[in-house]
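Observation: inputs received (chain + V0V).
Thought: call the complex predictor directly.
Action: predict_structure
Action Input:
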Amino acid sequence: LVTAVDHVGIAVPDLEAAIAFHRETFGLEVTHSEVNEEQGVHEAMLRAPGDATGATQLQLLAPLRPDSAIAKFLDRSGPGLQQLAFRVTDVEAAMSALRAKGLRLLYDEPRRGTANSRINFVHPKDAGGVLVELVEPAEVH
Ligand code: V0V
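Observation:
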């Protein structure tokens, strides 16, 4: 079902400040950044310099709007780990398999994630208190 840990997501109030912190403190490098209007985030993906393409990345997530998931998370919990994302080859198949085990998915159909991936989330109450994301990467050509 799961082929890799795709990324770990941290909610941050200020994306540029968080990028600078992770670059200057830990030497991480930004590989990608984008605005996802539907998800209400301005995000960046970072990786350790020794890691190959496809290795687990760190995702920094800043809110675009006060009613977004990240803004609500920051209000309730403050900055910190917000999600764990598993890479899958077929997000619909993963959704079906998890539904069959009685887990609640947040969306009926996959939505658009980072770099045109297809994503869904398992409700944190059904995954040990962790917001688990399923990511089917876009095909790389
Ligand atoms: C809320 N809860 C969490 C949580 N957020 N627990 C663990 N991790 C989190 N991130 C807990 C919360 O404390 C409540 O526990 C309970 O879940 C239900 O909370 P709620 O008030 O009913 O719901 P909300 O309004 O806090 O929403 C929570 C959910 C929301 C997970 C439904 O954040 C959501 O829709 N997330 C999916 C979208 C998302 O996170 N987008 C931003 C990343 P108690 O108090 O009842 O015990 S975008 C992204 O990752 C992209 C683009 C990508 O990777 O490609």
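Thought: report the result.
Final Answer: Residues 9, 36, 39, 41, 59, 61, 69-70, 72-73, 82-83, 85, 106, 113-114, 117, 119, 121, 124-125, 129-131, 133 surround V0V (CB under 6 Å). The two ends are 23 Å apart (CA to CA).
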